[in-house]
Amino acid sequence: MAVAELTDSINGHWRDRARALQYRIRDRFRIAVDRHRRWSEESDYSVTLRRWVLRLRALLENPSSSVSSSTSLSRYSKFYRKRVDKDVDLIDDSVIARLLQAVAVPLIGNACHVFMHGLNHIQIYGAEKLHQALLQRPKSTPLITVSNHVASVDDPLVIASLLPPNAMLDARNLRWTLCATDRCFKTPMLSAFFRCVKVLPVSRGEGIYQKGMDMAISKLNNGGWVHIFPEGSRSRDGGKSIGSPKRGVGRLVMDADSIPVVIPFVHTGMHDVMPIGSSIPKIGKRVYTR
After folding, report:
1. Which residues, including other chains, have CB under 8 Å from residue 243's CB and lie 6 or more apart?
2. Where do the H-state alpha helices sit in 140-210?
3. Residue 147 and residue 177: Cα distance in Å, rounded?
4. Which of 14, 68, 138, 274 has a CA that sits 20 to 30 A from residue 204's CA?
5. Which portions of the chain are predicted below pLDDT 50?
6. Rounded distance, CA 55 to CA 15, Å?
7. Is this model's pTM higher than 0.90 or not?
8. What is d(CA 210, CA 173) in angstroms, rounded to the nearest whole number?
9. Which helix (H) or strand (E) holds 177?
10. Cα separation of 262 and 130, whole Å?
11. Is 82 helix (H, G, I), strand (E, B) or coil?
12. What is the pLDDT, as a whole number, of residue 36?
């Protein structure tokens, strides 16, 4: 009897933790706004505080109303969706840009594939799911991949290691990714290089409704593939833990014209290939990707 009670107690504990985690994920990706104006993009108000403000406003506008709090909340709050045109950034869609991408992306991608599979030891689980989504999804269906971020070369090394070499010969099929302007776009030469390898600029601190995010959604609206690191920065403990996800992934999913295919994966060992502070990737290391 004591064993059964202990088992029930343990199960209840883990159910409570799973429910709490579910609520945290739901609240992080929810963007509640007022009917007449959006909440500030940089606001740090919690969802609970927003809920009470909306309830108070409803009471002040209609004190005699006997509408329940849940009904008033649904009346005065809703999800905000910002539509993005398919041609938000014509520079990346120019003939010259496409020609440069057609040369640079396959060349660098296959070099990274050889580096990871030939000079390091990488073990991959479930790569066929990414291959199927990349090569067999309908043309108009966008693809989003998300992963943890450990080293500055997670992209392109990990991404290239997951794909067969022949899939990287066509730059149009490969991913777009995002990088902070203070890292990848500091000089005109760096900017030109990273645009040639399908990297979009985002500015730290400008929120999820900035131009870089609009550009990423534009790629999705054209049936493209966008890879994003939801943590927003590299892990500081060598990948032992994953930081809290930012809201950018939620916006990519919510604001795309078509519901995207979302494939998450996690990798370990990249902190050995490219430790923080190192400028040259190491060889002979072991990496696992799931």
Report:
1. 231, 232, 233, 235
2. 159-162, 181-184, 188-196
3. 12
4. 274
5. 30-45, 65-79
6. 30
7. no
8. 25
9. strand 176-180
10. 10
11. coil
12. 39
Query: β-strands 267-268, 176-180: how paired?
Result: unpaired
The CB-side HSE value for 128 (13 A sphere, CA atoms) comes to 0
End-to-end CA distance of the chain: 40
pLDDT at 34: 37
- Name residue 244's amino acid: S
State the Cα torsion 37-40-41-44 to the nearest 10°. Answer: -140
One-letter amino acid of 158:
V
State the alpha helices, DSSP H only, in the chain. 2-28, 47-61, 69-76, 95-118, 127-136, 159-162, 181-184, 188-196, 211-221, 248-255, 270-273
* Residue 173 Cα to chain centre, angstroms: 18
Q: How many helices (H) and strands (E) does the chain have?
A: 11, 10
C-alpha span between 109 and 171 (Å, rounded): 9
24 — alpha (psi -120 to 50), left (phi > 0) or beta?
Answer: alpha
